[in-house]
Amino acid sequence: MTNLLRTVFASLLIAAVPSAASAADEPPHTVVSEEGSIQIRDYEAMIVAEVEVSGDMARAGNAGFRPLAGYIFGGNQARDGGSAEIAMTSPVTQTRSQEIAMTTPVTQSRTDDDSWRVAFVMPPEWTLDTLPTPDDPGVSLREQPARRMAIIRFNGGSADARFASKEMELREYLTSQGMETRGEAVYARYDPPWIPTPFRRNEVMVELVLPEAS
């Protein structure tokens, strides 16, 4: 899949922190419309901490998790000195008098055949000017612009084939509705591994092209 950009939302962080089972917030968004398991959502701009790693999807996700978890749990320089510990739960206590609640999901984006961009979504109350600076030079902070996304939701396992099937279903629906898309699909996993498989929430997301204002 040459030059493929596939974003996979994963629950890597909550899998590593059992106390954060369901305490994290999702990125701010508004549901524009809904039909069955399909929604159209407007997502606000968000900031992500991300790192680029190589390997297949599972290995890259694990490799990318380590430096990002290091950043979240104190591998950083707070703006007022010292370091800040960022946790999934809300509210949370941070070192050096900082409190940062982290939102889910965690993203994993494929940039080419063997390279992935793994990212944690930062809480909306923080900015690029106020978030702690990562100690690891491989970790960077970036603002993701606001987007309108089409979503199809399903429960159960999250194998690649299942996501691919749901992506096809979503794209066929969007085509039938005359909606134009851009980019590759976003695969989303919201639950930690100890949640029974039939109850796990998964989604496929596709960015929509907004009509130009007249």
Sequence of secondary-structure elements: EHEEEHEEEEEEHEE
What is the spatial order of strands in the main beta sheet? Answer: 2-3-10-12-11-1-6-7-4-9
| Fold-level CATH name | Multidrug-efflux Transporter 1 Regulator Bmrr, Chain A
Say how many strands there are: 12
Mean pLDDT: 75
Tell me the span between the first and last alpha carbons: 37 Å
Q: Shape from CA axes?
A: globular
| Biggest beta-sheet profile | 10 strands, mixed
The chain-level structural class is alpha+beta
CATH superfamily: Regulatory factor, effector binding domain
β-strand percent reads 35-45%
CATH C-level class: Alpha Beta
Number of contiguous helices: 3
Question: Considering DSSP H and I runs of 4 or more, what fraction of the residues is helical?
Answer: 10-25%
Number of self-contained structural domains: 1
How would you describe what is shown here?
With 214 residues, the protein is an alpha+beta fold. It has one domain: Regulatory factor, effector binding domain (Multidrug-efflux Transporter 1 Regulator Bmrr, Chain A). The protein has three helices and twelve strands. It has helices at 12-16, 57-72, 160-176, and strands spanning 7-10, 29-35, 38-43, 46-54, 76-77, 106-112, 115-121, 133-134, 140-144, 147-155, 181-189, 201-208. It has a ten-stranded mixed beta sheet. A two-stranded antiparallel sheet has the order 5-8.
